[in-house]
Design brief:
The protein has 325 residues and is mostly helical. 77% of the residues lie in helices and 0% in strands. It has a single domain (18-309), classed as Rhopdopsin 7-helix transmembrane proteins. The chain contains 13 helices and no strands.
Length: 325
């Protein structure tokens, strides 16, 4: 997996507007920060503290929320950089923030796949769900973090570690590997990070829908609808957030390495690249929809706890007012 950033193109082709790119990143990060921070913080709190131990996919949902929150916490630094065009926080923190962006992307893809597969398999084979142990989910999650962490390491290794210009993110200097290495990394990254997860989620969605239309025994109609909505929502989040980036990325690499030479084509590809990255960041706000709308118990616990807080505040106000009287 790799992500070469915007560099000056060939003599004859003008580069995309840096003002457009900077403004787009700044606005997107500002819009995502507060909703992403609140939604994922509440999700982690509820999922860890209130979800019944028998809930399916809760471990994967916790990891998904953690991945989103880790990226959201770097957004203030990104906003600062794109507004001030200066990075005074050191190269190490810059590379960490840069790394967490792609770690979030591919960890989110991985856990969306895990949620889809588990829900589909448990729907088709209810007896397997009863014998499934929570420690299996924990082991799968740990393995996924190791794989994704290692797979995203080229994002850091391909960056210039001797950056002295106080630049960061899209403006980071980059080491250029040869064309064969670049092609191998792009193909491997798109295959494992997009193509395989895409077909896996689509197959899970199709099999879930087909199973629900059949005569397989399921407890009730509500359970059927909930299972289908969960898998469909994973597919929708995946398509909105991650498909645009991965479909455009090979073209982007071919443009920056002069494989694509038509100026008009390159302009469209390079202009869409930051847009696709912003869509990928949007998953921090869309993933919590999976927890809230697809997990009945999550809604019940959140509503119950929220109601108890309101009742507590009302009671304290009433007691306070009666004391004054």
């Amino acid at each position: 997996i790799m992500s070469p950033q915007s560099e000056s193109l060939n003599h004859s082709c003008p580069n995309i507007s840096l003002e457009f790119q900077t403004l787009l990143y700044a606005i997107t990060n500002v819009l995502i920060f507060i909703p992403g921070l609140l939604a994922n913080s509440i999700a982690l709190w509820v999922l860890c503290s209130y979800i019944n131990k028998k809930s399916k996919a809760v471990i994967f949902m916790i990891n998904l929320a953690f991945a989103d929150l880790a990226h959201v916490l770097t957004l203030p630094l990104r906003i600062f950089y794109y507004l001030n065009h200066n990075w005074p926080f050191g190269n190490g923190l810059c590379l960490l923030c840069f790394y967490l962006k792609y770690l979030n992307m591919y960890a989110s893809i991985g856990f969306l796949v895990c949620i889809s597969i588990q829900r589909c398999v448990f729907l088709i084979s209810p007896f397997r769900a009863k014998s499934w142990k929570r420690r299996y989910d924990i082991c799968i999650s740990a393995a996924l973090w190791v794989i994704v962490g290692a797979g995203c390491s080229p994002f850091v290794f391909l960056r210039n570690s001797t950056n002295k210009n106080q630049t960061c993110f899209a403006d980071l200097p980059m080491k250029k590997p040869n064309l064969l290495v670049t092609a191998t990394m792009v193909v491997a990254g798109d295959l494992t990070g997009f193509v395989i997860p895409f077909f896996t989620i689509m197959i899970c969605s199709w099999k879930t829908w087909k199973t629900l239309k059949g005569d397989v025994f399921i407890h009730n109609k509500r359970e059927k609808q909930k299972a289908l909505r969960l898998v469909i929502t994973c597919a929708v989040v995946f398509l909105i957030c991650f498909a645009p980036y991965h479909l455009n990325f090979p073209l982007y690499v071919m443009s920056t390495t002069d494989v694509i030479t038509n100026c008009e084509t390159r302009k469209h590809i390079l202009t869409f690249h930051p847009i696709s990255l912003c869509l990928a960041s949007l998953n921090c706000c869309l993933d919590p929809v999976i927890y809230y709308f697809m997990t009945t118990e999550f809604r019940e616990q959140l509503s119950r706890h929220g109601s108890s807080i309101i009742r507590g505040r009302l009671m304290s106000k009433e007691s306070g007012s009666s004391f004054k009287e």
